[in-house]
Design a protein that fits this description.
Order of helices and strands: HHHH
Largest sheet: none
């Protein structure tokens, strides 16, 4: 059914982000964007990425919560998802 297709599609989209090395660990040196801790508040991140960052989330929500709900593993992926 459609639920299966939806799940399939999101898996395909997720794998597209990883042409070099599946867990992205090799790219960690690229600066602090991936280093943001999951307990960083949305409010703090909005100062860097603008007021539209994590739209619909409270400013005191943690990055980890947003990543979890959006189904991504890192801030980097979240930003690409827009």
């Amino acid at each position: 059914g459609p639920a299966y297709l939806g799940g399939r599609r999101s898996i395909d989209m997720a794998t597209k982000h990883f042409p070099k090395g599946l867990d992205g660990r090799m790219q960690d040196q690229n600066g602090e964007i991936r280093q943001k801790r999951s307990d960083t508040k949305v409010e703090t991140l909005r100062k860097t990425y603008g007021d539209d960052f994590a739209k619909g989330y409270r400013s005191d929500a943690h990055l980890g919560t947003v990543l979890n709900r959006e189904g991504v593993d890192s801030l980097d992926q979240l930003l690409k998802k827009k």
